[in-house]
TrEMBL record:
GO terms for molecular function: DNA binding. Residues 42-150 form the Core-binding (CB) domain. It holds the Pfam family Phage_integrase. It comes from the Bacteria. Residues 371-395 are annotated as: Disordered. GO terms for biological process: cell division; chromosome segregation; DNA integration; DNA recombination. It comes from Pseudoduganella plicata. This is Integrase. Residues 378-395 have a biased composition (Basic and acidic residues). Residues 173-389 form the Tyr recombinase domain. The keyword Cell division applies. Transmembrane segments: none annotated.
Length: 395
């Protein structure tokens, strides 16, 4: 049972959280000895911040790791009335069950699944129950946190260590992608958007550009918002043919170049003309790849990009429902989709279109196709040619 005296602790973002002395971890039962300490932190929040500092240069990783550490810290202090540094193995088992359905919802789940700024009074740690894959990801991240705190001498032991499971067999195929019928309906949804007013036209062209970018380039949302127009560049091959490329920085700060096909550049030119820009980017342009409505030159947030993609999927689901009960499966599937599904869709469609697997690997920025072909490398120009001919959006 939760001790009602702990209700003074209200779930709040970790940077604004203030814990009473008996919950801040200074006297946690799992604390390491002072003679072993390798970090200056003397409480749980500062210890977590010391761990997070290692990832400050990679924003997506930092945000993901902070989210999981923050959730566990809040649950421990609010629901159990224990500091993070007093958790034991049985507490971890209870938390795993909690992740399946965070209750009470009014305390833990954002109203109507909305995303609020971290300082907003209606901010909550969860948008809803975690999927099995998200639960596994939480376990991986938290195990890394506790292992590091043990190594740093802050904790005596890792309460997750007894729950380490053998790595499951990899899924035989990617399932989070849009098949041809659903993908065609998504494009039809965008094409059906009104475009009578300047704002409607800008919104329509922005969506066409964004979906073209996500699909033809297979970009992650973090890569979309973190890349500028100046990252486009043109170069000529040995035959004098000019080809456009887009340089992005992916996971692990690894740069890669992605073929910018003629379809992609056509959509970009349409979008840029609507914003009063030159059809093609100039070197060193600082404008983001996708801009807020109104053309203000500022970077959109990941949440903002996810939201406008989700709105298209919701409208697509409505179109399927309007066709009748026979399309309930398609409606339900597209409602599950997220912006990252477009990356998986791009990869699946490229493979189904017989694009060389090496080209798919290089375009999506995967580390390798598999252990047996780690050293394969595809020439860039042939990758551009094959992508141009076999991977099309066909608006």
């Amino acid at each position: 049972m939760t001790d009602t005296t702990n209700r003074a602790v209200v779930p709040a973002a970790i940077e604004a959280l203030r814990l009473p002395a008996h919950l801040d971890g200074r006297s946690g039962s799992n604390r390491g000895g002072d003679d072993r300490a390798q970090i200056a932190a003397d409480n749980d929040i500062d210890a977590i911040k010391a761990w997070l500092a290692r990832f400050i240069d990679t924003r997506t990783t930092f945000d993901s790791y902070r989210k999981e550490a923050e959730r566990l810290l809040l649950w421990a202090t609010v629901e159990l009335g224990k500091p993070l540094s007093s958790l034991v193995h049985e507490d971890w088992l209870r938390y795993r069950k909690f992740l399946q359905d965070p209750q009470p919802a009014e305390r833990w789940i954002s109203p109507a699944g909305r995303k609020f700024p971290r300082a907003h009074p209606q901010w909550r740690p969860f948008a809803g129950p975690l999927s099995p894959s998200s639960q596994r990801q939480a376990a991986i991240i938290l195990n890394a946190l506790f292992s590091w705190l043990v190594q740093a001498g802050y904790l005596a032991g890792n309460p997750l260590a007894l729950s380490r499971e053998r790595k499951g067999r990899a899924a035989p195929r990617i399932t989070r992608y849009l098949d041809d019928e659903v993908w065609a309906e998504v494009k039809a949804t965008i094409e059906a958007l009104p475009r009578e007013t300047p704002r409607e036209r800008e919104q329509y062209l922005r969506l066409r550009w964004l979906f073209t970018l996500l699909y033809l380039c297979g970009l992650r949302v973090s890569e979309v918002i973190g890349t500028t127009m100046g990252a486009f560049f043109a170069r000529r091959d040995k035959l004098g043919v000019q080809r456009w490329w887009l340089e992005v920085v992916g996971k692990g700060n690894k740069p890669r170049i992605v073929p910018a096909t003629s379809e992609l550049m056509t959509e970009l030119a349409r979008y840029r003309r609507e914003l009063g820009m030159t059809p093609f980017p100039l070197p060193h342009e600082t404008a983001p790849l996708v801009l807020p409505l109104g053309g203000k030159e500022r970077q959109m947030t990941r949440g903002g990009v996810h939201e406008i993609v989700k709105q298209v999927f919701e409208k697509t689901a409505q179109r399927f429902r309007a066709k009748g009960d026979d399309y309930a499966t398609e409606a339900a599937r597209v409602m599950m989709a997220s912006a990252h599904w477009l990356r998986h869709t791009a990869g699946s469609h490229m493979v189904n279109g017989d694009v060389d697997l090496r080209h798919v690997r290089d375009t999506l920025g995967h580390v390798s196709i598999g252990t047996t072909n780690t050293y394969l490398h595809s020439p860039d120009d042939s990758r551009h040619t094959e992508t141009e001919s076999k991977h099309r959006i066909d608006w």
